[in-house]
């Protein structure tokens, strides 16, 4: 199913389990079902197929920034709302507002065959601003309390698999250990440019 959001210059398509995605009055809503996640444990063999969670993704062209305020109805450990980047079945990344495991946290996962897992900082409340940016093969993750001043979180590429096709970018909801959670994304914005400086708050 395709969803067109007026704030974004590209259509979005659903992937993975049914996320009951909906858009109304500037708010995108998705739902993760029980024990839905997208993670390939680094402590063992890659699962076949990879675990999955509801995703809503599109293919922007060129340099960009995708911004959203994310709100999560936290109910279980590691429930999260996510900005997500995908270039292959074993090459993708997540920028999460996550209950990790009992306090809201900005965390990231970059998967190149297996997933890593990095907690950046805890936050107050169930809402936070997230931003993913791209220039060329490079991606950057930022987070913000107010959508104005941004904290640098991570700079990375997704390896050789990235060369084989355009990146898909968008939204994910997860509830790895819980019975499900609702995630909303509002104040959606798209900028066709790379941030002028990754570390100066802009």
From TrEMBL:
This is Regulation of enolase 1. SUPFAM superfamilies: Concanavalin A-like lectins/glucanases. It comes from Streptomyces griseoflavus Tu4000. It holds the Pfam family DUF1349. InterPro entries: ConA-like_dom_sf, DUF1349, UCP022704.
